[in-house]
Structure formats: structure tokens, C-alpha cells
Amino acid sequence: MAGFKQTVSLDVQSDILDMLDAAAEKYNMPSRDKALRAVLDYVAVDGDWDVIFGKRRCLRCGGRPGWTPSQD
Q: How many CB atoms neighbour CB 39 within 10 A?
């Protein structure tokens, strides 16, 4: 358990929790919390913030269902 962790409360849609659970399971992580920390570490270190935050994405607009698991 590297680094001090703080407990926070975030509002996310249920499909995002499903996505984090799927990532944790696929990559043998202990929890969705660890999967989210991996995503945030990527954004902090390797992510191109202009690409990540400069484009509007909507997984739920126009009747879209949100994140869905891939079929592979």
C-alpha cells in the first residue's frame, strides 16, 4: 500500500462502477478502488490532458447506455 490514501466520496454512474469492477477482475486487482487509482495515475503521468479533457465525451447522451463490456 504505497502512499497515504484518503477516503473520498464521488458521484459516478453505475456503469462506471461496472467498468472499474471489470478492470479490477481482468487485471487481478483487489478492488475497484485500485482500478480507479490506476486510471488516475495514468492520467497524472502519461495522459495527454488536452486529449483527455479537451474533448467532450458523453456515454449517456441520446439514449446511449453508458459503458458496456467488450465482447472479447
A: 14
Tell me which amino acid residue 20 is: L
What does the alpha-carbon distance between residue 32 and residue 34 come to, in Å, rounded to a whole number? Answer: 5
| Contacts (Cβ under 8 Å, ≥6 apart) of 69 | 18, 22
pLDDT one-digit tens code per residue, 3-32? 899 999 999 989 999 999 999 999 999 999
| Torsional sign, CA 16, 22, 26, 2 | positive
| Buried residues in 11-26 as b, exposed as e (16+ CB within 10 A) | eeeeebeebbeebbee
Report field, pTM of the whole predicted structure over 0.70: yes
Query: What is the 3-class SS of 18-54, one letter each residue?
Result: HHHHHHHHHCCCCCHHHHHHHHHHHHHHCCCHHHHHH
